[in-house]
Design a protein that fits this description.
It is built from 10 helices and 12 strands. Strands 3-2-4-5-6 form a 5-stranded parallel sheet, with helices on both faces. It is α/β, with parallel strands linked by helices. It has 2 domains: 156 residues, 3-Layer(aba) Sandwich (Rossmann fold), CATH 3.40.50; 119 residues, Beta-Lactamase, CATH 3.30.450.20.
């Protein structure tokens, strides 16, 4: 049996809308899924006042259809619905690569431990219990939207930096504390190396030098800031296949190297700080 529709319980001590950093979430998209029109109206009113773009779905099937047409930033999902329940809707969303990252908050009158666990197991991140408390609705939704926005920003930055690393002609590589390569960008293909096959190899295997150990000390530096290495001349071996074509056995590059630590740069030089050396980031420009 479907539970009766909910209502807003205002804060008797303070009827004003909670201050919730509205500018950070304004314009973000919310999909409300509930087969009770009164609940859709109540939640829609609360969220629209918060500057959010609201769409509604009266059934689970309709919700799945709308998500594919206009992907929301967050879904408020009723548990009990006549066609497919909220748990099943959430399960299907999380099974789809295109919708698995959309945060889902369940709305329900059921707040028992078993119900909560079931919701989390299918991918829900939170619950809002009926009858609705406006401040709770706003605060819970705002918290998740801010997290979603922050995660999206991180993903965008990672894509931005990935494009740069993959397309620049400079040789970009990272060494672990044992001077083994743990990352090499596609520019290494110009020297005849598959970047993936370089992973795990000691960087010294690629270097031609009469004083290799001293050179490696500088290349795999632990220093940061003004003590980091700049314009270190390094001769890299060219693969046999490419060497036959370009008629060169080595390529001279000038490398900037900086140590990577698990603490901010300013703490690396402090003796009373628990710190760990993670490796070295190197960027090499070909000699003109």
């Amino acid at each position: 049996m479907k539970e009766p529709h909910s209502k807003i319980i205002p804060n008797r001590k303070n009827r004003k809308v909670v201050e919730f950093e509205k500018e950070l979430i304004s314009g973000m998209k919310i999909l409300i899924v509930d087969d009770t029109p009164a609940n859709l109206e109540i939640l829609g009113h609360i969220l629209q006042r918060s500057g959010l773009e609201v769409s509604i779905a009266p059934t689970g099937e309709k919700a799945l259809e709308l998500v594919n047409l206009n992907k929301p930033d967050l879904i408020l999902l009723d548990v009990r619905m006549p066609d497919i329940d909220g748990y099943e809707v959430c399960r299907r969303l999380k099974a789809d690569v295109n919708t698995k990252d959309i945060p889902v908050i369940f709305i329900t009158v059921m707040a028992g431990t078993e119900d909560l666990v079931r919701g989390y197991n299918v991918g829900g991140i939170d619950y809002i219990v009926k009858p609705f408390h406006e401040e709770e609705v706003v605060c819970r939704i705002t918290t998740q939207l801010k997290l979603k926005k922050a995660q999206d920003a991180v993903i965008q930055r990672e894509k931005f930096y990935r494009v740069i690393v993959e397309r620049v002609p400079d040789l970009i590589f990272q060494l672990d504390p044992d001077r083994k390569i743990i990352f090499a960008n596609p520019a290494f293909r110009l020297l005849g190396y598959d970047p993936d096959q370089l992973v795990g190899r000691p960087v010294g295997e690629l270097i031609e030098s009469d004083n290799k150990e001293n050179l490696l000390e500088d290349l795999a530096t632990r220093h940061v800031g003004p003590l980091a290495i700049t314009d270190l001349e390094v001769k890299l071996k060219i693969s046999d296949e490419v060497s036959e074509v370009v008629e060169m056995s080595t390529q001279t590059i000038f490398v900037d190297s900086v140590g990577l630590w698990n603490v901010p740069d300013e703490d690396v030089f402090k003796n009373n700080v628990d710190k760990k050396f993670l490796g070295t980031l190197c960027v090499g420009k070909k000699a003109v």
